Amino acid sequence: MSLFPGAFHRYRVVHHVIQSATVAVLLGLMWPSVGAAAQIVVPNSLTSVPGNSQFGNPLGCVPPRSERYQQVYRGVEVGSGTITAIAFRREETLIFPDGSPITIPNVTITLSSTTAGPDTLSTTFASNVGADVVTVFSGDVTSFTNVTGPGLKPFDTIIPLTAAFTFDATTGKNLLLDITVPSCPVNALISFDVASVANDSVSIVRASDAGSSAGFAATSGLVTQFTLTAAAAPSPTSLVAAVLPNSRAVQVGTPATVSATVINAGGAPASQVGIALASTVPASFGYWLLDTSVAPPQLIGLPNTPVNIPACVPPAPCPQKDFLLFMTPTSAFGPTELSLTFAGINTPQVTTLVGINTLLLLASATPTPDMVALAATAPNDGIARISGVMGTGFFVVATTNLGVGDTITVSADTGAAAVPVDVLICQTDPGTGGCLSTPTPTATMFVAAGAQPTFASFVRALGGAVPLDPAANRVFARFRRSDGLIAGGTSVAVMTE
Predict the structure, then answer these.
(1) What is the CATH number of domain 368-497?
(2) Is 480 in contact with 362 (CB distance < 8 Å)?
(3) Which of 70, 97, 322, 460 is least enclosed, having the fewest CB within 10 Å?
(4) What's phi and psi for 8, nearest 5 deg?
(5) pLDDT confidence bin for 38, thresholds 50/70/90
(6) In a 3-state reduction of DSSP, which class is residue 77?
(7) Strand, coil or helix: what is 16?
(8) Domain 1-8+236-366 indexed as CATH 3.40.47.10
(9) Neighbours of 378 (CB within 10 A)
(10) Phi, psi of 17, rounded to the nearest 5 degrees
(11) Is the dihedral of CA 138, 144, 145, 146 positive or negative?
């Protein structure tokens, strides 16, 4: 039983909704820490020497043809990390004379992880594409700069990706580049540096028709430079944590309860993992281990008892522990972003990430609305996806007012980060999900005690790429009471693709 029966009762009301989303948020945090970006040339042996062949495909095609081109790269030569640009270089002998740069219009590029390897690609294009395929570029490509003369050429056909792709070489898979050129421009005569060696680290399948489902295979492949931010070596014990809901508003003397999930993503057991309040506010704090395998969840043992979390052994899901956190304000204070310390005796502290493992808490001297909010995305991974740099994505928010009735104004922003998006909001019909009015930057309505209004947020890209960075690129939904103070909130990561 809880020391705070009323608080635990209210926690039960919302826990079944927030538990799965807590885990989804944590999965978004499981991206590896990263180092500096580097240029990786594949084949690695051709970083500073030319290949032994040349061809113009796929960007040097000639009308009236179009082009579908797949190239596989051995994963261990690419390495693990996030790819943000691709580049090619011309062959050193300049079989075609130097000329003006050529623009190839409407090029589409995808990247994926594939089980097919060099010289083993299927001639059926679809059979080579991995399940994690991402459209990383869609637009015009300029084929080279004005560098002239013979000799080893720079990688000057540079394609900055509009959506980054994270590749994990430790899975044993290889990287698949898939380029579609729907129409070849006039006089697109250019010849690229190529490696043509059996059983090396590249090979291709291509067709002179962008609509073809199959092509012919060759052992050759473009010498390619990837801009890749490599994954750093994981800590032997590496914890990640999330808190839901991310915002509460309670009257002084009333416990505010939230759920926390801690995952050990490291390869060693995490010992004596506990939680503490890192911020200084007039409030008591405690935590309690939860058994979430039963409904309703049950408190385990005594409060404030550290726990051990077993090591992560892929491919099994990394072990996690769930907790009930409770804070009881002893005097009033305005909305304050509270930082929490999650750590074991043999682990570093979890990095504080606003909106993910923090709590925005309002302690009111009088009864207050308390808008417990939960966001959902499609799929339910905590990421609002936007199609292209001018597209629109969305997420939805379900709420429950656990406090008193009040006029509530809903808005959204990107927090401290300058993310190139804006957001329109509407209240929705809980049954159909349809907007009850035209989406606008804010929505205002009276929310009675116990009411459960729902909302849709439409996130519009403003012309710039938004990489997947759940720690930084987020959209925050805010619920302000009639005096303007925040009485609830939630957030999602946002990315363009």
Answers:
(1) 2.60.40.10
(2) no
(3) 97
(4) -70, -35
(5) confident
(6) helix
(7) helix
(8) no
(9) 12
(10) -80, -40
(11) negative
